[in-house]
Amino acid sequence: MSPSPDERSARQVGRPLVQPAPPAPPALRKIIHVDMDAFYASVEQRDDPALRGKPVAVGGGGPRGVVMAASYEARVFGVRSAMPGFQARRLCPELVFVRTRFDAYQAASSQIREIFLGYTDLVEPLSLDEAYLDVTAPKCGTLSATAIARAIKREILAATGLTASAGVSFNKFLAKVASDIDKPDGLTVIRPEDAAAFIARLPIERFFGIGPVTARKMKEAGIHDGADLCARSEAELVNRFGKVGRHYFRIARGEDEREVSPDRPYKSIGAEETFATDLKAPDAMLEALRPIAERVAERMAGADLFGRTVTLKIKHHDFTVNTRQHTLADPVHSAEELMQLARWLLHTPAPPARPVRLLGLTASNFARAAPETAPVQLTLAIGELAPPELDSSILKA
Predict the structure, then answer these.
(1) Domains parsed from the chain with CATH numbers
(2) Is the model's pLDDT at 273 over the cut of 90?
(3) How far, in Å, CA of 254 to CA of 317, rounded?
């Protein structure tokens, strides 16, 4: 092979040949995930001293109610979010139910957001009670992400009287998992040199993004922890779990290049739930939609975005998917409004005739921030059969 022009030039002047330096590896980021501890229940206990030390559930305690959040005293008895109220009462007869107060949760969330912004502008809220922070180049003070996480936890406690748990690592996936390791009031750090061993020991159900149904399928395939997941090829995971298998392949190796995006454009905000047992009765479907509506309302409030268009997703037992959608004149602001429209969509033109394995709700067509005046209350009553047509004077397409 003939020498390159650069090589010939170097030989003519007697310079030693110098190989080009390999590209520098990308600098590791410093990511913090902050997750408030039993946020809604903790706000209620803070604001009502009579609730402190007692098992508390936020949500409905009636026969059709659903637990939205549970205090740590209630969790000891097995009470969890999204659990039917009657089941929670059976597990814990002394359980105290309180109604949701989104105004109080939003006020506390705003205080917490201001604390985050004192350290970095790269804050990506996920909901009212959790957010990612990129502190690779903080605004002031120490460059230690661990020290910043400690300072944030102290400031949140001083400003709101609430505790938070934090995870610190070099990517979003590991920071999110870390924040859940030592709750409540915990701080877990996963350094680059410790990541592989940490992931290998992590039970598969603790992987963020792997829900109960997928975890069960993985265990049936012999995948019980991160080491088992890492041992599977990308092709095998894609073949077994579809395109999301590529994501599982990467996170098993601690790979997550997602940036903290404070101004990411939301096209939609939604939530869905896959059920262990297919639902056949419309009443059971409606009951299952309530915690989904609560999650969507919470995420809209956290993003300060409120959708005019609501879509109901229905996946049947044979994996066929149907969607039903309606656009309102004014944005939907609350879980109750979402539930009213979800009920109408579920019954229009008729309830699903086949068993349902998944339900989801999505809000889109956003308006930013709630109006100063109270939103118009929808006329669709939860306890009554939805009419075949919407009242055009209130719900304008």
Answers:
(1) 31-37+102-194 (3.30.70.270), 40-98 (3.40.1170.60), 203-251 (1.10.150.20), 268-368 (3.30.1490.100)
(2) no
(3) 34
The amino acid present at 17, given as its one-letter code, is: L
Q: Is the distance from CB of 312 to CB of 285 less than 8 angstroms?
A: no
Residues 6+ apart with CB under 8 A from 182: 165, 188
Tokens 């409004």 belong to which residue?
Answer: 337
Integer CA distances (angstroms), 325 to 211, 218, 269, 340, 345, in order: 26, 34, 14, 13, 7
Strand order across the beta sheet in which 164-169 lies: 123-127, 130-134, 31-36, 164-169, 187-189
- d(CA 337, CA 323) in angstroms, rounded, equals 19
For the chain, the residue count is: 397
Q: Give SS3 for 358.
A: strand
Condensed to tens digits (0 to 9), the pLDDT of residues 320-338 reads: 999 999 988 888 888 888 9
d(Cα 175, Cα 169) in Å, to the nearest integer? 5
Task: Choose the catalytic residue: 44, 73, 124, 130.
Answer: 130
What pLDDT is stored for residue 394 in this prediction? Answer: 31
pLDDT tens for 46-73 read 999 999 999 999 987 666 677 888 999 9
Query: CA–CA separation, 92 vs 103, rounded Å?
Result: 28
User: If you write DSSP's letter for every residue of 50-63 in order, what string do you get?
Assistant: GGTTS-EEEE--ST
Is residue 73 part of the annotated active site? The answer reads no
Contact 87, 65 (CB under 8 A): no
Task: Say how far apart CA 330 and CA 393 lie, in whole Å.
Answer: 12
